[in-house]
């Protein structure tokens, strides 16, 4: 096998749902391809980093070359994970194990041959160009014309023989030295194989780079990775050591958890110190019931430093500080925000709260069940002319509701019909004024708040919207976001599993004919074009495809579709395709058959 044939697949996009035999992955994930296991030209059989065997669509991946040593290591890791569930493995998995084992044997054999050839080339004795030269027959027959000349030639010949003998001896000594060095190197390599990299070593390297250079934790990890790659290229006979350290670097989260008793973080010390100072400031102002305005620069500096550490430091360290003592630091910031009247400090606290929401999902839950949502809702309504403050308040409020978690009952005392009317009204106003950023945040609050309502019939957001005569910006923006497959509520990296807020809002709206009437006919036709395209392109079993089927069912059921029948032929083709798939999804098939029965006059031929 040539080195150009050694590659892995790297994911170009996320694939979050699909058939049970299809692997789920994120962009950048790598897979080991298994040759000769797939009969479908559009799918590859692969093993992912967890040792799970499944199908991957070729359109979602690209080839990435890797070294033989790294590929062997990946195969070893995959085989180890595959053998864990050996009592209950499937026929496909057994075939994969057989292929990987065979591939590993071939690679090791190929690698050993190259090493052997290299050693043989190094040990080969070069031809000595200075060896004594035997005279030709013609020269041997020539008479000696001058005895002095003959004596001189004899002396030269003796000198050459001595010189050549010395050179030969020197060369032999050098060869013996080289052989000795090679033997020593092999012995050293064998001893390296037995060397265990301490768990604390790589985390300590990253921490030292972060502390000394002040660059972020992620950049510090990248720097250490570059250094290890350089060592791997420059000192290849220690490749096992460098690859072990690189593995520890890629699995740093688990390694750091083990090594945290040894590796102490400077960021953790600084955060605890800032927290202590803010606690004193808060209690000092609380006791006097008025702020000492001269401390504004001090508190502002502490909040800025705290935010920078949360952004740049090791997430494991910062999460540990945040979660300490049942989120004591989060509760302190909420209390401080509630009692702090100064705008500049309030905005900086909002910055910090937004940053820590990204670090830990528990922070979002903590904020949702605090007084902060009510405080933010009041801020938005009372200070809407202050665009800077409103921008940050609306953004944080949308983040707090973006998980779809049900808020406490007291939340509805503040975020009620009056508040929602205000949000819908201001959404249309800011769109006319051209303030897109605040408008996007207002829409995000509405979409995010709608996520936790399970029944459209008991949804205060939809009840409020029914009282509106028009919602042009809202409806146009919903179609735009759906077409672009964008979800403004997906702002947290650890919140990918939540329902798409735009899709849920559309499905909920189309449950009621009076809400469908808010859309122009042209918008409905554009929506049908989007639905047909997505039903054609999406993979079987993807949740989005089932969502589009739910949406089109509500549209057919609650709108005046019979007046225009736009994309009827396209829908018929999509339904036929879903029913004739090689790996059909049961929920999709059930929904299509229900629609075919309910709207028999339109889908009688499928």
From TrEMBL:
Residues 167-190 are annotated as: Disordered. Residues 173-190 have a biased composition (Polar residues). SMART domains: SH3. One of its GO terms (biological process) is endocytosis. InterPro entries: SH3-like_dom_sf, SH3_domain, SPIN90/Ldb17, SPIN90/Ldb17_LRD. The keyword Ribonucleoprotein does not apply. Residues 4-66 form the SH3 domain. One of its GO terms (molecular function) is Arp2/3 complex binding. Gene3D superfamilies: SH3 Domains. Signal peptide: none annotated. Keywords: SH3 domain. It holds the Pfam family SPIN90_LRD. This is NCK-interacting protein with SH3 domain.
């Amino acid at each position: 096998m040539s080195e150009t044939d050694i590659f892995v697949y790297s994911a170009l996009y996320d694939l979050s749902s699909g058939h049970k035999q299809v692997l789920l992955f994120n962009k950048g994930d790598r897979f080991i391809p298994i040759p000769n296991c797939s009969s479908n030209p559009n799918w590859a059989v692969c093993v992912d980093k967890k040792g799970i065997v499944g199908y991957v669509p070729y359109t979602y991946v690209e080839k990435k070359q890797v070294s033989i040593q790294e590929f062997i290591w990946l195969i070893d890791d995959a085989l180890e994970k595959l053998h864990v569930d050996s009592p209950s493995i499937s026929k496909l998995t057994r075939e994969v194990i057989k292929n990987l084992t065979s591939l590993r044997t071939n690679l090791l054999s190929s690698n050993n041959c190259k090493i052997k050839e290299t050693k043989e080339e190094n040990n080969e004795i070069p031809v000595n160009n200075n060896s004594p030269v035997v005279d030709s027959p013609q020269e041997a027959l020539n008479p000696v014309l001058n005895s002095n000349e003959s004596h001189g030639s004899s002396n030269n010949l003796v000198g050459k023989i001595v010189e050549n003998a010395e050179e030969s001896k020197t060369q032999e000594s050098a060869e013996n030295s080289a052989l000795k060095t090679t033997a020593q190197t092999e012995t050293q390599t064998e001893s390296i194989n037995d060397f265990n990299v301490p768990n604390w070593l790589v985390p300590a390297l990253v921490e030292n780079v972060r502390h000394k250079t002040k660059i972020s934790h992620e950049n510090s990890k990248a720097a250490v990775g570059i250094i290890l790659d350089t060592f791997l290229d420059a000192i290849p006979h220690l490749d096992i050591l460098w690859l072990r350290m690189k593995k520890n670097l890629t699995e740093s989260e688990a390694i750091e958890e083990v090594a945290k008793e040894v590796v102490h973080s400077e960021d953790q010390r600084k955060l605890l110190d800032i927290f202590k100072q803010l606690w004193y400031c808060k209690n000092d102002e609380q006791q006097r019931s008025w702020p000492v305005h001269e401390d504004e620069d001090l508190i502002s500096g502490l909040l800025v430093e705290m935010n920078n550490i949360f952004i740049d430091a090791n997430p494991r360290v910062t999460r540990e500080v945040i979660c300490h003592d049942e989120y004591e630091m989060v509760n302190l910031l909420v209390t401080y925000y509630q009692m702090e009247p100064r705008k500049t400090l309030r905005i900086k606290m909002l910055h910090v709260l937004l940053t820590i929401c990204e670090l830990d999902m528990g922070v979002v839950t903590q904020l949702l069940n605090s007084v902060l949502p009510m405080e933010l809702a009041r801020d938005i309504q009372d200070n809407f002319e202050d665009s800077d403050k409103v921008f940050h308040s609306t953004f944080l409020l949308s983040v707090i509701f973006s998980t779809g978690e049900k808020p406490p009952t007291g939340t509805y005392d503040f975020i009620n019909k009056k508040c929602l009317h205000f949000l819908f009204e201001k959404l249309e106003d800011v769109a006319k004024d051209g303030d897109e950023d605040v408008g996007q945040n207002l829409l995000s609050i509405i979409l995010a708040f709608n996520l936790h309502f399970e029944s459209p019939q008991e949804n205060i957001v939809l009840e409020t919207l029914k009282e509106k005569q028009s919602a042009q910006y809202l409806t146009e923006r919903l179609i735009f976001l759906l077409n672009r497959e964008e979800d403004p509520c997906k702002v947290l990296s650890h919140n990918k599993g939540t329902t798409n807020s735009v899709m849920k809002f559309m499905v909920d709206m189309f449950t009621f004919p009076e809400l469908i009437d808010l859309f122009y006919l042209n918008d409905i036709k554009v929506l049908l074009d989007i639905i047909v395209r997505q039903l054609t392109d999406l993979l079987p079993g993807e949740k989005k495809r089932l969502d589009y089927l739910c949406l089109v069912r509500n549209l057919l059921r609650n709108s005046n579709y019979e007046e225009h029948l736009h994309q009827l032929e396209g829908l018929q083709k999509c339904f036929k395709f879903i029913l004739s798939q090689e790996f059909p999804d049961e929920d999709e098939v059930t929904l299509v058959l229900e629609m075919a029965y309910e709207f028999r006059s339109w889908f009688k031929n499928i």
